[in-house]
Write a structure and sequence with these properties.
The complex is a heterodimer of chains A (about 325) and B (about 550). Chain A is mainly alpha-helical and about 325 residues long. Chain A has helices at about 5-25, 30-55, 90-100, 105, 125-145, 155-165, 175-195, 195-200, 205-225, 230-240, 255-270, 275-280, 310-325, and strands at about 110-115, 115-120. Classes of the chains: A mainly alpha (about 325), B mainly alpha (about 550). The interface between A and B is large, with 101 and 120 residues.
Chain lengths: ~325, ~550
């Protein structure tokens, strides 16, 4: 069995211990509370921009959409305007479904051998876990903007209300926190337990999941169990946001710094990893181009000339045979 | 040709369990029957393609790679990363979610994990990480990077020639990662080292010289077509005299050369000829541009362009107005997604207008080339064909969507519309096996070669399995398709898995039903077989 996840688990634990010890034993609050978060964010922004620009530099020589429905041809055949877009608007709608609703993943099927036949089953688990994970993450990130904005915009307050609609516990339980942890855990279990997925997984597939699980666990612990001093946290985060960073007096628990360190590591890790799929999905040529090649010419920037075999060369070789067979020729 | 097991045994041997060893440590299988034969050197030399140092076989330890092979691959990879955003993005953004894993027909029919699209791409990706990414350079195998070695080249050769570039996985990938792109790049890189398979390169060399994959010379081509005309006359009483290389014709007709050559493609060819005669189309064929297919697509972008260039050059020389293309799969990938970009603009041609119905094909306004089922469905819609679908009554027909017209074009309804108008009994295969989710015949992208019959029967199993389903349920006995490779590959596939089912091109069915002017009463179909089932004859 592929035990790549052990490396990643070890890495995440060591990272957590470094931050905890760094703050609790060595008193390096400024390092883990100010310098590293700034560094992480800088690497994220610069790295992300660099990667996207780097992709954009590469040419798109051919328009190669994967068509998933009827083309636009004759008027009495109803085209599938979304899955086989012929216009830019169609492409935008296709990308909307792809990026916000994971359209392609929703098609997922599973092959099974039944007796002497193959059969296919529609399976939505991966789609469901992925959707749960990504949207929970998004809501959690948006909720956290309250730590970087003063006054807190009403949108965020509203989102928090909605997120806490279950009215369970005190502080009120946020659904997104639980579903984030659940989604990430399910995706991780899938990788560890399903042999086929385990076989294709790299350490780099486990690491971000474990890191995010680490972020979720430390966050949940702070909010519901160790009850971190939220006012002090906000003092620190507002300092970061306003570029007047300072470590609040009286201190914040080491757990908070572990949480912040994990987030910083995640930010810095994104540009070097598969997590760039969040940018790359926009640039995928099989999805973001219209299927209209026969109607509108696509230009290849490096369309260099190639050696061709001309008709003249062809006729020169076969002229006698052609004449004999009564085929017209250019030169008798 | 290596012996292949009986269907039941082959089916039982499908094994989805996962090997104990990591995939990097499992060498490819080069036993007889598991690999395609390498190309003969003369083909490479004729095309001025790169060569390796000498004769070689995949079973050899030493593949005679050029001395600077690592440099060639590194530079070739780098060049392609700059030339193809698809490659670069696809190298970077796969999250290995596994959605593609059981979408590949070769994986479904065999179980080799490296036929999961994700691992097929990892074969390239691992080298990419080592050579072109920071994490891969520093962390090595922990980051999924590995050094390029001759063993990796061998693995590429094995698995990039176990992919038919069908794009089914790309339908299911949340980022649209297209293994066809990966395989094309992999094959291009191998080609830089002189490593190609004969079943692809010989047709490329033939096509470059004679204008078609089969190497049919002009006089022979004319003879073959005239031979079909004799058959047509015998069957229908109507004499057809198609013309070749005729200047000033309105339409240039180009079809894959498989249609000239072997049954049942030849009946499809006869179907085209009868249709054109019936409607009085002013057309010509060309002996120079006598190939619709393009095996260059299975070699390199450069080869695609070199072969495809003939279509426009010949259309220009002959002064036709537009081009009509026959039933072919990968040909239509090239025409729909590459031709105009590579060899256009075709500003010397006109937007195709059907001379019979007046329909203007705006969807081909730039390429100036339309598909025969687009053309024929327009004729039928306007009532221009006299049809007697009961002549196809002995057939219970289902339709196999070819990979490329479905996933690189979206030509789904046109052939169905034609079939439903010329046949009374049509049944769809189950959802999930047709249209954009259609399964490959198992022999696409140059894999239609005898020496890998085991692989082909496995790869074709998902298609055959779906045919079996409609055969059992509705008594389907005829599998229609619009692809010359299908017409060559599906008969042995059916023979192996569902021997009760035959294979036909759509225009063979059209011609069976077509009531031509001045024809004699038809008692047999294009194959010379009675129109009615024999047992019914004996009842009478």
């Amino acid at each position: 069995m592929n035990v790549g996840y052990l490396y990643s688990l070890l890495a995440v634990i060591v990272l957590g211990l470094i931050a905890y010890a760094g703050v609790e034993a060595a008193g390096l609050q400024w390092l883990f509370g100010i310098l590293i978060p700034y560094l992480g964010l800088t690497i994220f922004i610069a790295g992300f921009v660099y990667r996207v620009m780097d992709w954009a530099k590469s040419a798109v020589p051919f328009r190669i959409p994967t068509t998933c429905g009827q083309q636009k041809s004759l008027p009495w055949f109803t085209p599938n305007r979304i899955d086989n877009p012929a216009t830019t608007l169609g492409v935008i709608v296709r990308m909307f479904f792809e990026i916000l609703l994971f359209r392609s993943l929703f098609r997922n099927t599973r092959v099974e051998i039944r007796g002497e036949r193959l059969s296919y089953k529609w399976v939505i688990w991966l789609w469901l876990f992925a959707l749960m994970f990504h949207y929970s993450f998004l809501i959690v990130v948006i909720r956290h903007l309250r730590f970087f904005l003063e006054p807190v915009p009403w949108v965020i307050t509203l989102l928090e209300k909605a997120d806490g609609v279950l009215q369970v516990g005190l502080p009120i339980l946020y659904i997104s926190g639980v579903t984030l942890l659940l989604g990430a855990t399910l995706l991780l279990l899938r990788r560890v337990l399903i042999p086929r997925i385990n076989y294709i997984s790299l350490a780099a597939d486990y690491f971000p999941l474990l890191l995010i699980i680490g972020i979720a666990i430390t966050g949940i612990m702070m909010r519901y169990f160790t009850k971190v001093d939220v006012l002090k946290v906000k003092e620190l985060t507002m300092g970061l946001a306003t570029f007047h960073p300072a470590i609040p007096e009286g201190g914040i628990s080491g757990l908070f710094y572990v949480h912040l360190f994990f987030v910083s590591i995640l930010l810095a890790y994104i540009p070097f990893s598969k997590l760039m799929h969040m940018g790359g999905v926009f640039l995928s040529p099989t999805r973001n181009l219209a299927n209209n090649n026969r109607r509108i010419r696509h230009i290849n920037p490096w369309n260099h000339p190639v050696k061709v075999h001309t008709y003249e060369e062809y006729e020169d070789e076969f002229r006698e045979k052609m004449i004999e067979a009564g085929l017209p020729v250019e030169k008798e | 040709m290596a012996k292949i097991p009986k269907p039941q045994e082959l089916f039982k041997s499908i094994d989805y369990s996962i090997p104990k060893k990591k995939w990097e440590d499992v060498p490819p299988d080069f036993s007889e029957g598991k690999y395609c034969y390498p190309t003969k050197r003369k083909n490479l030399e004729y095309l001025d393609f790169p060569t390796n140092k000498g004769e070689w076989s995949p079973t050899d330890e030493d593949w005679q790679l050029p001395d600077n092979w690592e440099e060639i691959i590194h530079n070739g990879f780098k060049e392609r990363l700059e030339k193809y955003r698809s490659l670069k993005v696809f190298m970077d953004i796969c999250v290995r979610c596994g959605a593609c894993a059981d979408k590949c027909h070769f994986f479904i029919g065999g179980g080799d994990p490296k036929n999961m699209p994700v691992l097929r791409a990892e074969l390239l990706r691992s080298v990419y990480r080592k050579d072109f990414t920071t994490a891969g350079k520093i962390l090595g195998s922990i980051a999924g990077a590995r050094k390029l070695t001759p063993a990796v080249i061998k693995e590429w050769f094995s698995y990039f020639y176990q992919c038919s570039e069908c794009r089914r996985c790309s339908v299911f990938c949340p980022y649209g990662i297209d293994t066809a792109e990966i395989t094309m790049m992999g094959r291009e890189l191998l080609s830089l080292l002189g490593l190609n398979i004969n079943w692809v390169l010989e047709p490329v060399a033939n096509c470059f010289r004679t204008g078609n994959h089969l190497g049919i010379q002009p006089h022979a081509l004319k003879e073959m077509i005239e031979f079909f005309c004799d058959d047509i006359e015998e069957l229908t009483g109507v004499r057809i005299t198609p013309q070749f290389n005729r200047k000033g014709a309105e339409v240039l007709f180009i079809t894959p050369s498989g249609d000239y050559f072997a049954d049942p493609g030849t009946y499809t060819m006869m179907g085209y000829l009868m249709l054109f005669e019936h409607i009085g189309l002013d057309y010509t064929m060309s002996t120079y541009a006598s190939e619709g297919g393009n095996f260059g697509l299975f070699t390199s972008a450069e080869a695609v362009k070199r072969l495809n260039s003939k279509m426009y050059m010949e259309a220009k020389r002959l002064g036709v107005k537009w081009i009509l293309g026959g039933e072919c799969g990968h040909m239509w990938r090239v025409i729909n997604q590459y031709m105009d970009t590579m060899n256009g603009p075709a500003d010397f041609l006109e937007v195709p207008v059907s001379p019979i119905t007046g329909t203007r094909f705006e969807n081909a306004a730039s390429t100036k080339m339309i598909h025969i089922t687009e053309f024929t469905s327009d004729l039928i819609k306007h009532g221009k064909l006299k049809l007697d679908p009961s002549r196809n009554d002995k057939f219970k027909v289902t339709f196999h969507d070819s990979c490329n017209p479905s996933r690189a074009m979206g030509l789904l309804e046109e052939p169905r519309y034609v079939i439903k108008n010329v046949c009374n009994h049509f049944y769809e295969m189950p959802e999930g096996t047709i249209r954009e989710q259609t399964f490959c015949c198992g022999s696409g992208a140059g894999l239609n070669t005898e020496e890998i019959m085991d692989l082909r029967m496995r790869g074709g199993l998902p298609r055959a399995n779906a045919v079996r389903y409609v055969h059992d349920k509705y008594g389907v006995n005829m599998l229609a398709c619009i692809c010359a490779i299908d017409r060559a590959a599906l008969p042995p596939l059916m023979q192996y898995w569902v021997p009760e089912v035959g294979v036909t091109g759509v225009h063979e069915l059209v011609a069976n039903a077509l009531v031509m002017d001045g024809e004699k009463e038809r008692t047999v179909d294009l194959r010379g077989e009675p129109l009615k089932e024999e047992e019914e004859d004996t009842d009478e």
